[in-house]
Amino acid sequence: xxIGDVSKRAGLPPKTIRxxxxxxxxxxxxxxxxxxxxxxxxxxxxxxxxxxxxLGFTIEDCRNLLALWDDKDRASADVRAIxxxxxxxxxxxxxxxxxxxxxxxxxxxECAGDDRPDCPILQTxxxxxxx
Amino acid sequence: xxIGDVSKRAGLPPKTIRxxxxxxxxxxxxxxxxxxxxxxxxxxxxxxxxxxxxLGFTIEDCRNLLALWDDKDRASADVRAIxxxxxxxxxxxxxxxxxxxxxxxxxxxECAGDDRPDCPILQTxxxxxxx
DNA sequence: CCTTGACCTTCCACCTGCTGGAACCTCTAT
DNA sequence: ATAGAGGTTCCAGCAGGTGGAAGGTCAAGG
Lengths: 131, 131
Hints:
Chain A is mainly α. Chain A has helices at residues 3-10, 14-22, 40-54, 59-70, 76-110, 120-126, and strands spanning 29-30, 36-37. The first copy, chain A, binds a DNA duplex through helix 2. Chains A, B: Its main location: cytoplasm.
């Protein structure tokens, strides 16, 4: 399969796939004309990457997950540890964003949003402790 | 004030402050010895930046907010539009992360996390539509 | 047979928002 | 005089790609 087909099937832009080859996540073969030739296993890996990235795993996480995936003797605890650590990070990110949302919602509600220059948003950013 | 003092007061690393000068967000004066000399207004701007960045506004948003802040005739609607757009983005990010959390929580729960190689996490990443 | 257009290739620069380090200068206290 | 804690500049690099230029290749239509 050429890169275009793989791109459509895996849902990753060709540029991203080339980048993944660059950093050693996939190693497709080459046709005599120099085109990349993706095997089923490459396709499989890229689809895996696409999903793992969509779940917010870092590239390094993905590299580890792929290694574990290749390793038939892996302990599921290893995979679970990666996922769990990632989950913790996701949860703290959600909490941060919820804090931010709260503040912003408050600010947007307070602001008249008309032609007058009085703006509680700027006042608050000026000195957030006064809110 | 020297950069160290400003750094402590604004809660921004000196490197970041120099970077903000580089990209034109602040323009401190210079002492004869070449040291940056921050006026009250610079300090003010940096504190503003520190807060706005903590709320997740992009640098470009901050640039716009600072311009509006400087503009006594601004319409509060302009500021509100920026904040509202940002709020929308925050909310969609939260929703994305909550989706991810749901999937991950499910996966971590399913996974035995022992020495056996059976791992529903990898199985799912292999073909997420089967979950 | 030639051309057109859609592919593919490589390489290099750029994006955001900093951060680290090297090499050097300056001020203050002892 | 010297040590140490500031300050300065510049250059490189992080993640995770994206954009564009310059060129090679392939299949279809005239």
